[in-house]
Structure formats: C-alpha cells, structure tokens
Amino acid sequence: MPISRSGFDVTPLASPRISELASDFTPEEKHVILHQGTERPFCGVFLDNKQDGVYTCRLCALPLFESSAKFESGTGWPSFFRPFDPDHVKEITDRTHGMARVEIRCARCDAHLGHVFDDGPPPTGQRHCLNSISLAFVAKGEPLPLRS
Ligand SMILES: [Zn+2]
After folding, report:
1. Is CB count within 10 Å lower at the N or C end of the chain?
2. pLDDT by residue (tens digit) across 76-116?
3. Which residues share a beta bridge with 112?
C-alpha cells in the first residue's frame, strides 16, 4: 500500500467508504467537502485557533497541516505556509469562475480543502487557504485518530 513520507497509509478510499464517512455531515459540510464549495470568510471555527496541534482531514482524519505552519493571512480563512506532508495534499488545477487556481484536496479521500496560492510568507512562499469546515483539530499530545 502507498505510504506517505511521514509514514501514513495514503491508499485512496473507495467511494462507498467516503459516503459512509460523510453520512453524518451537515448540508454545508457536504457542499464544501464533497462538492468543492467555499465557506464564507471570517466564519470558520479555526480561523483564530492559536492552540498547538495538528489539523486533520474532517472526512478521513489524515494529518494535513500543523499549527506551527499557520499564519495570519488577513483573508478570513485559516492559512498555512506548508502542509504536514506534501504526500497528504493533492493539487488540482481549477478553471472554474474564469480563472486558473490550484485546488487542494486530501490525497486519501479526495475531500476538498481549499486552494493554494504563491503569495505566502517565507520559507515556502505558499499560502494554503483552507475551509475550517474541511478540517478537524487534534491538540498537541492527543493521539491522531486515523480512520480508514
Ligand atoms: Zn481525507
């Protein structure tokens, strides 16, 4: 099975399993996570979260971003300058809305996360712009609840 650089199983989940994991989602969660929606800015629960820990995929719990890479972008969405592991975040060119943007999805379950832009801070210059709704948070010291 495919293992990421940081040691997690990144075998893509089958669509029946994805539907099962998403079965308790609200309509807004389904819209954003499964249908590439965008939550309204300044509304997400993680925008002002300053705790140390790891942000995981809301759907499959794969670790996606660490609090140490979070920065205040002023956009109204939680922003990170690098992923937890580049093998955990898949980039897809998105040509909807009349512009070319790079969409980011969970590499394991295909959950829509947000977009990545090249106007972020050092050291990477990247700005991963996330929907809070696509994430869950695991505080430092807590076990990572990986679901497969
Ligand atoms: Zn996932």
Report:
1. N
2. 999 999 999 999 999 999 888 788 899 999 999 999 999 99
3. 105
**DSSP strand pairing (63-66 vs 53-57):** antiparallel
Using the predicted structure, report yes or no on whether residue 145 has a pLDDT greater than 90.
no
Q: Quick one: pLDDT at residue 97?
A: 79
Q: What confidence tier does 148 reach under pLDDT thresholds 50, 70, 90?
A: low
Dist. CA 5–CA 3, nearest whole Å: 7
How far is the C-alpha of 120 from the C-alpha of 16, rounded, in Å?
36
Residue 25 has a CB neighbour count (10 Å cut-off) of 16
Domain ranges of the chain: 15-139
Q: Which two tokens stand for residue 62?
A: 């794969």
Neighbours of ion ligand 1 (CB under 5 A): 57, 59-60, 62, 106, 108-109, 111
- What is the average pLDDT across 6-14? 94
Looking at domain 15-139, its CATH architecture is: Beta Complex (2.170)
Burial class (CB in 10 A: 0-12, 13-18, 19+), 119: exposed
